[in-house]
Each structure stands twice: as structure tokens, then as C-alpha cells.
């Protein structure tokens, strides 16, 4: 038997096949593009997600027909927060408003004013990235579209509807809507009422490792699948990735250096810290929660800088590594597209400070890498404020290919970072594991195990004091620069 994981990302859809032992057998992908009709807007046509799913699974069928025929379970992962609006005929009303769309900042303030208990119930601050403020924006600016809303689905859950005909979401992805009572793992009538909606507008909820429906007969015939597979609840992209990397036990976590940066840790109970803009969500497996510190420009910062100086990112990191000895004089604040943790400021912007005649592409590149490391440390600080300790940490994402970058982060966090052997342990792989669990009834903790570790990056004890001093400067800069920008 085989199991399929589908990850509905922002830049593409990825499909991964695994066997009953959890080994990857094959993969395929199809690209997506983002529409930005106005500054701060970010949208996609949900039809494009479906087209990409069909292309990816069709490609798997062409390459591995016997493996696809043996699929018994399917799991879903996807970009979180996107508002996909359906009318009573299940037609998409407008393009989906995505996680990185910041148009609804004013609506966030309105939500918190209308319901003072919002943060306590949701366990999170109202942020423009979340789904609920987007609906208030539609109500205010597109009242005709708002009046047509019959269902609101997240991106992967719209794909689920087309796969199974069911309206279902999982606890982890639903946590990012700002409509879920995260501690009690159910929709909140009070939170929904702030946006004029009810549970009738919402999908039903299951755990990520539970069945949510079955693949339609038409799709079974299209892909030559012999027996109707079960479709698991799945998870939001980071929760699904945690299932893929084995971060499901309390205290286990990962640091992701992708376009954005994430410091993720699993919890045995609900531990919010809204003052620090921590994301406190349900995990994709039962009776488990997780916290995330999220900053929006990790490798995005390095790619931006590399383009600015006419190099590629690998060239910048290599040049820094060749001469690196200690923290530099320059400091970089990586807020190129605003910030979530810990500042919750969509209007924040990046800055270089401490430039001199000696500053060049190498020293400024080092500052960019260190600025991202300090952003990870910011996330650790506010997670610690919530009473959380991270016991083990695994590195994922494109930035984790730089040992020096991981060493900077390890030194700032004061803990070792494990680097897995080559392999893709992201959302699609974790989703496939969830599909396996839903199909077989296996214990999630026996399936969602850690990968083999290639090496461990240890902190530099000799640089701890220097980085402590530099981090203190980094922290002091944000308030002063934002105050100056406001003048």
C-alpha cells in the first residue's frame, strides 16, 4: 500500500508518495503564481490550486502507475489563513486572499475592540494574515461578495472539497483563522459573530490524523486507484512539516529558514503569549498543541541583499564564511515586509545600522545573516516568556544548507541544532504520514518519527558574550527606528 501527501503551497503544489514504512517513493510538483493587484494585496485563483493538484498527481500516475494504484490514504497540507469564499452553489466568489496579504490591518483593530476577550479565546493577536479580518474587509469593501458567502474554506480545505465533496478542516489549520477556540479545539460563536458569521459558514472539524472523507469515484478512475482511499484531516503547512520532521513530542521543535522564518515547538497543553505575538495553535495530532514564532523575511532577506549586490545567495554566504571570526559592526533588521513575532507590525521595514567606509558586500552580508539569527532569538525569547522550553531542534529549509548560518543561530539560542540527512521532510511528506495514520489507525507518534541526523551544529561558547552584546543592540534599534519613521 502507498500513501499520498499533497501540499498546497503559495508558489506551487507538491505531491509525495510514501510506503507503509514511511519511505519516500516519488514526487511531482506544479507551479503557482501570486497576483498582487494593489500594494499590500496578495491573491490566488483557487482554480489554479486544483489545476496544479491534477497536474501533480497526473504526473505521479504517469511515472509510477502501480504505486498510484496502491494509494490507500491521502493527507493534505497547505498555506494557512487564505480566505476562500464559496456561494450556495459552491462557486468561488472572488480570488482567495492569502496569508501574506496585509490589507486588513484596520479590521484587526476593529475585531479586538468589538470583542475584548478575543485574545483569550483565540490565543492569538488579530493579525492581517489571519482569515477572520479578511472577511471583515470584504464585508466593508465588497458588500455584494460578502452577502453571497455560504462557506469559508482554507486553501487545502477547498482542495479537499474537490477531492471528497466534504466541507472539513483540521484543528491546526483552523487555529489560524482567528475563529477557533484553540484551547478547546472548536469553533467559537463569539469570534464568528464579530465577522457576522456562524458555524453554518464553517467546515466541520477533525484532528489532522483522522479521516475527513474519501476520494471521489471519478478521481479514483482518473488516477487508476484500485480501492477508494481515505483522506485525512491533514494540517497547516508548519504543523504538517512538524509531522514530517518528527516534532510531535512536547519540547521538540524545528527552525525553518525558508522565505519566512519559523521557530516551532510542540506543547502538551495550550500556552499562549499574545503580548509577544506568539502563534499558539493546535497541532495536527490529537491532544497536542504547538507554538510558533514567525518572522516574514528569512532567506528572503538574503536573496534580496544578494540581488542588490549582483550575487547569488550561496555566493554571499560563502564569502562571509571564508573570513568570518566574530559578530560584525553592521546590524541588519530583517523587516523587509513587516513583522509578526515579536512586533506584530505590518508596516515595519528593514534597516542597516552601523555602516562605515569599511562596509562592503561581505560585511553587510554577514549582518543580514546575523539579523535573521537575532530574529530567531527574538522568537525563542517570547516562547520562553510563555513558559516553553525547547529541548531539541532540527533545521529545515534552504537556509539550513549554510553551516555558518546555523552556527550563528545555535550560538544565539544557546543550544545545538541537528541537521537531517538529505531528504524532503516538509509539508507534503508530513501530510502523507497523516494519510497513512488515517488509513491504518496507527499511533501518530510511531509514524511521525525523526529522520536520521547527518550532523549537529553546536553553539560557539567563545562568541556567546559578543553575540549577547550585539543582540542587545539589535533589540534596542527597533523602537528608535520606528519612532523616527513615525515623525
How would you describe this protein?
The protein is α+β, with helices and mostly antiparallel strands. The strands form eight sheets. Strands 1, 2, 3, 5, 13, 14 and 15 form a seven-stranded mixed sheet that branches. Strands 18-19-17-16-22 form a five-stranded mixed sheet. The protein has a two-stranded antiparallel sheet with strand order 4-7. β18 and β19 (289-295) form a beta hairpin. It is globular.
Secondary-structure map:
Blueprint lengths: L1 E7 L3 E8 L4 E8 L11 E2 L1 H18 L1 H5 L1 E8 L5 E3 L9 E2 L7 H10 L3 H5 L8 H11 L1 H5 L3 E3 L1 H10 L3 E3 H4 L5 E2 L4 E2 L1 H6 L9 E3 L4 E4 L2 H7 L6 E3 L2 E2 H9 L6 E6 L3 E7 L11 E4 L6 E7 L3 H10 L4 H11 L7 E3 L17 E3 L7 H25 L6 E5 L6 H11 L3 E4 L6 H14 L3 H4 L5 E5 L6 H23 L1
Parallel strand pairs: 1-5, 5-14, 5-15, 9-12, 16-22
Antiparallel strand pairs: 1-2, 2-3, 4-7, 6-8, 10-11, 13-14, 16-17, 17-19, 18-19, 20-21, 23-24
Helix pairs in contact: 1-7, 3-5, 11-16, 12-14, 13-14, 14-15
GO molecular function, one term: D-xylulokinase activity
Function: Catalyzes the phosphorylation of D-xylulose to D-xylulose 5-phosphate.
Organism: Pelagibacterium nitratireducens
